[in-house]
């Protein structure tokens, strides 16, 4: 299978065992969070070779994360440890309806000290695709420079780049800076995966077709807009279409659904699936993921994915 490279910050996540305000919860369940690590996990479970560029502290949660990556078969050759700064963590509330409350503890983390010099140490030989999100450039100016350098080096090497804006407004110094940086990074990609609500912020519209116009005008060849439970809108150089999503009986947690969608897109592209087959896979993985509490627990193996698609075929 192809070699895929991702860049991001994994966090030890503590999810509330009971509903209610986080300050009143007494018991939490530990798991692993981070958009990029979710995508890494999904890619590996579908049999793809993937490596993770990250930096952790020298602390117990860092070793927990490294053990998780090793278990999932995710390459750690570009993982480094920082002796001074700590590994990031987060708390997540338990909810029966709507999105959970998430509290981040990542300011000044080991990963936030990543720099362009760290990216220059990466060997891109054998890499077929680089998947980037808009989270690292929000964490610090040095991480922002590292993200630009990563995409520039990938472009110079002729490597295909997929980009998921994954907006986290609370992490940015202002919405104006966020929009400017995200769209500059988007212009360096071959394929972008915005959500429709992200399009309203980044492109000034929540009309999927106008969002696609905006990014193709920036030079992005393929635009796939996530429409949540409604599926996706796809625009390529050869045409466009809407594709319905999959229905699930009960949504447990929407966090991680977009990352699952990205897994479907990236693997479909690398395996030479048609664009319709690729979006079917992406919608399926996103639907599976919303039926689990953990951000990545539900990401399927190939057998589980085929079974889900087969049982939901029209």
From TrEMBL:
CDD domains: KdgK (cd01166). It comes from the Bacteria. Residues 1-301 form the Carbohydrate kinase PfkB domain. One of its GO terms (molecular function) is ATP binding. Keywords: ATP-binding, Kinase, Nucleotide-binding, Transferase. The keyword Kinase applies. Signal peptide: none annotated. Pfam families: PfkB. Belongs to the carbohydrate kinase PfkB family. This is Sugar kinase. It comes from Neobacillus novalis.
């Amino acid at each position: 299978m192809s070699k895929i490279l991702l860049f991001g910050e994994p966090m030890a996540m503590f999810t509330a065992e009971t509903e209610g305000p986080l300050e009143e919860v007494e018991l939490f369940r530990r798991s692993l969070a981070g958009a990029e690590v979710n995508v890494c996990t999904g890619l590996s479970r579908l049999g793809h070779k993937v490596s993770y560029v990250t930096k952790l502290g020298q602390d117990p949660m860092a070793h927990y994360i490294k053990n998780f990556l090793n278990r999932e078969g995710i390459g750690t050759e570009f993982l480094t440890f920082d002796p001074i700064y700590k590994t990031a963590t987060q708390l997540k509330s338990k909810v029966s309806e709507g999105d959970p409350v998430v509290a981040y503890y990542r300011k000044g983390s080991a990963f936030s000290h990543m720099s362009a010099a760290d990216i220059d140490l990466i060997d891109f030989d054998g890499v077929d695709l680089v998947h980037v999100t808009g989270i690292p450039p929000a964490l610090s100016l040095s991480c922002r420079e590292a993200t630009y350098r990563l995409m520039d080096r990938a472009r110079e090497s002729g490597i295909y780049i997929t980009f998921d804006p994954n907006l986290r407004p609370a992490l940015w110094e202002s919405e104006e800076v966020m929009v400017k940086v995200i769209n500059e990074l988007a212009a360096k990609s071959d394929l972008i995966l915005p959500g429709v609500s992200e399009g309203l912020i980044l492109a000034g519209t929540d009309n999927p077709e106008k969002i696609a116009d905006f990014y193709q005008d920036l030079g992005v060849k393929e635009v796939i807009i996530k429409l949540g439970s409604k599926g996706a809108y796809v625009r390529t150089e050869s045409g466009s279409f809407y594709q319905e999503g999959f229905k699930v009986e009960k949504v447990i947690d929407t966090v991680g659904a977009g990352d699952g969608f990205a897994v479907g897109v990236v693997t479909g592209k690398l395996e030479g699936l048609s664009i319709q087959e690729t979006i079917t896979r992406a919608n399926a993985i996103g639907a599976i993921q919303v039926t689990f509490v953990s951000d990545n627990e539900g990401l399927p193996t190939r057998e589980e994915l085929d079974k889900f698609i087969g049982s939901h075929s029209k």
